[in-house]
Amino acid sequence: MKFVSFPECSLDYQDYTPCTDPKRWRKYGMHRLTFMERHCLAVFERKECLVPPPEGYKPPIRWPKSRDECWYRNVPYDWINEEKSNQNWLRKQGEKFLFPGGGTMFPKGVSAYVDLMQDLISNMKDGTVQTAIDTGCGVASWGGNLLDHGILTVSLAPRDNHEAQVQFALERGIPAILGIISTQWLPFPSNSFDMAHCSRCLIPWTEFGGLHLLEINRILRPGGFWVLSGPPVNYQNRWRGWNTTVQEQKSDYDRLQKLLTSMCFKLYNKKDDIAMWQKTSNSSCYNRLAKPDAYPPKCDDSLELDSAWYTPLHPCVVVPDPKLKNISLKSIPKWPERLHVAPERMSEIQGGSASAFKHDDSKWKVRAKHYKKVLPALGTDKIRNVMDMNTVYGGFAATLIDDPLWVMNVVLSYSANTLAIKHLCVRYNCIRIRSKYDMNVEKMSPHLFMPCSFTTNSHLANINLYDLQACKPLLTPNRQKILNKATPIVPTISDACFASAATSLSESYIDK
């Protein structure tokens, strides 16, 4: 057996973010905040060391208590606390950060804000709206609150002057990834979310030909809702606090409404600081986009709408595929029936079928029971944040749906694109990670557990020690990674990275 030891990185690297490293931002353009996008290191620049936890790190507080508080030393960021404490984003008290549920646009608290949204969108109460994305999430209080309502929300934010919005979210046990709508598509498939939300997220929706809003249109399914609170909504009463004029805000609102109408969105409801638009399911509106004078125009049929991996934003409207009759929000089963029904888009995947989906569902029910024998903490409050690093149809996540955890499904950039089949799924080259932000998931995610479904005939059979070493920054101390099915790499796992112990069951290895 070959053992390789990796040195520990210095404490200067405890917050090292190679793909979104502020020290490298000057190398990239300021236009449309391009410097905040992923800019990963060349192979020869990568660090081959183990990223340490923050000084004074403590075992994370368990869910659901973690939603309301976390240890300060686990996320020792003071700027956001000093700047946003007056808005009740968070508050430092002794050794902890507390999250009272406030926000810039919900001074009465996130619960009252969500209650108002539910009054305006009844579909949020009956299992119709199930997946949501929060762009510019702050500390993810909106997404955390929606979990109480059975709505799975991924919170999205860049690494910016707020320091660690995503880090706070993951420490709280709320689904989140680093990201920004800038020049590239987000790593999600088309028609994947039932709702998109922006609460004073400061995204310039009507600039650059509406490119940012066109991306929201791409990832939002027909019948889905786009919710905006903040400028220019309620400009008649709010303009004085926005350092602008009422005329400028009215003009911004009119431009926004015109752009949304041209993209086949209709104003659904509006009250106080919240406005919501619904993406139409009516094909007649999309047919008009094919006219030569339409702007934005309809995207070309040759465009791969689910590629989502370093794909540039396109100045065109992604329209629903007319061959898919049951893709709209009103056509799909309500939650939780939706979880175990093969999506219509299964037919678009090579080898995909309803029977393959059902087989995957059944297989993971058996396999998850096996995992829980190997790792009794799985399915308890000891493990909250989970990443399936090589998901196919999402059966692992579906099997654990009733457990107190959430699963980030990852589809490899070079594997069959099954993104559109799953809930909360991203497209990444997950094994070429070198630190937490390569995967857009933070290294100190509480209770992170990785089921890695590696098979001997896959690309992953050729991964090496340094690829496995890169997994460690994503795991909190004393957390687990499971390799499902033995591959040639298992006997060479470094004990400096993980203390390996093969289980008595032949198909799994567990590393801590």
From TrEMBL:
Keywords: Glycoprotein, Membrane, Methyltransferase, Signal-anchor, Transferase, Transmembrane, Transmembrane helix. The keyword Metal-binding does not apply. It is a single-pass type II membrane protein. Belongs to the methyltransferase superfamily. Coiled coil: none annotated. One of its GO terms (molecular function) is methyltransferase activity. Its main location: membrane. Its EC number is 2.1.1.-. The keyword Cell cycle does not apply. This is Methyltransferase. It comes from the Eukaryota. GO terms for biological process: methylation. It is found in: Endomembrane system; Membrane. One of its GO terms (cellular component) is membrane.
